[in-house]
Amino acid sequence: MLTLAIIKPDALQARNAGKILAQLEAAGFVVRAARLVKLTTTQAEAFYEVHRARPFYRPLVTFMTSGPALVLALERDNAVAHLRDVIGATDPAEAKPGSVRKLYGASKERNAIHASDSPETAAREVAFFFAEGELRELG
Question: What pTM does this model have?
């Protein structure tokens, strides 16, 4: 099963991307595709469309366009639920010890990583960033 993760601009700026990626691989995820992106406002608005009516939508779009982000298509059994467990709660203050957000997130808004929240969302989000031919099988 595939899921999407985005190592956000705050984590890249703090030079934590490698540590986060190592933690994901140690948790059993295989990187099937990766891309360093600088989202445009239009791309960020489209990606986070589901949140358009929420008060955090505009600040989220602004934040996600503030610098480069590392987009990852990750694979493993039960990928969506397992990734959500590995990254921890949205608010780093509420995240379990050792989780990505507890270790590298600064706030609920700047929490180091995005992860798909359901298999349906994961399929849509992976396809948003990667064409089927870009998803590499690793032997």
Answer: 0.95
Q: Quickly state the pLDDT bin for 136 (edges 50, 70, 90).
A: confident
Q: What CATH architecture applies to the domain 2-39+69-134?
A: 2-Layer Sandwich (3.30)
> Among candidates 79, 98, 77, 102, which has minimal Cα distance to 89?
102
Catalytic choice (2, 114, 116, 125): 114
Q: Which two tokens stand for residue 136?
A: 């590499």
Question: Could you tell me the residue ranges of all domains in the chain?
Answer: 2-39+69-134
SS (H, E, C) the chain: CEEEEEECHHHHHCCCHHHHHHHHHHCCCEEEEEEEECCCHHHHHHHCHHHCCCCCHHHHHHHHCCCCEEEEEEECCCHHHHHHHHHCCCCHHHCCCCCHHHHHCCCCCCCCEEECCCHHHHHHHHHHHCCHHHCCCCC
pLDDT, tens digit (0-9, with 9 covering 90-100), for 40-92: 999 999 999 999 999 999 999 999 999 999 999 999 999 999 999 999 999 99
Q: Is 82 a catalytic residue?
A: no
